[in-house]
Structure formats: C-alpha cells, structure tokens
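in:
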C-alpha cells in the first residue's frame, strides 16, 4: 500500500478502483445519448397544460373574487368563484397545451425534413406556431 492512495478502512480496497469515467447508461442500439425533439414533445405539452391550468386557476380566482366582491360569503358566491376557477383553468390549459402541441409538431416535422438538429428548427417552429395562432384571430 502506498502513502498516496490509502486503503479504505471500510472496504479494505483501494478507492481508485471505484472511480469510473465512462457513462453507466445502457442505450439501445442506434439510440442517442440526448433526447430527441419528439421525446421532449410530451414533456413540453404536459408542462404547458399544467402551467396553463395553474395560471388559469389563479386568474379565475382573481376574477371570481372581483366579480363577487359585493356578495356576502355564502354558498352561491363560493360556487360562482369555483366556476370561474375551473373555467379559466381549463381555458388556459387548453390554450397553452394547443400552442405546445403546434410548436412540438412543427419542430419534429422541420427537424425530420431538414435532417438536422439545431437552433434554426426551434426558431422556425416558434415562428410558424405564432403565425398560425395569430392567423386564427386569437390575441
């Protein structure tokens, strides 16, 4: 045993043998180490739906409290506020989820068409999504 690498008092072996510099992932044949745009699409769409639902619920709570401020705290007021929360939550979840779906679909199509993975695909997908969304008359 050299003075530079003492034995581990617990394992009775040289800790240098435990260090590995290679990745320990087992990848299927032909798989990439990074996730592709198609795999990330599901995370993007789900994340946008949940973000939209949370934002919409908060917005619905704000609107519900504002609209019913002259009412006393009662069951009808609570129901009205709850209706605003659920309506706004669903509306925003649907809107952001639809945008994420469009963005992801454009991104995958552009990537497959060009055969390259770079920032140009992201810019083009975002631009096309914005153009399509604005062309439908939405604000």
């Amino acid at each position: 045993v050299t003075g530079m690498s003492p034995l581990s008092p617990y394992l009775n072996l040289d800790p240098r043998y435990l260090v590995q510099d290679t990745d320990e992932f087992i990848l299927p044949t032909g798989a990439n180490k990074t996730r592709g745009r198609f795999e990330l699409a599901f995370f993007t769409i789900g994340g946008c739906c949940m973000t939209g639902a949370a934002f919409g619920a908060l917005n619905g709570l704000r609107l519900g409290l504002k609209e019913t401020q002259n009412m006393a705290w009662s069951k009808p007021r609570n129901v009205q506020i709850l209706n605003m929360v659920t309506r706004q939550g669903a509306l925003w979840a649907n809107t952001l989820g639809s945008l994420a779906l469009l963005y992801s679909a454009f991104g995958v199509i552009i990537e497959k068409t060009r055969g390259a993975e770079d920032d140009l695909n992201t810019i083009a997908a975002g631009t096309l999504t914005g153009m399509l969304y604005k062309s439908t008359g939405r604000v």
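note: The chain has one domain: 34-135.
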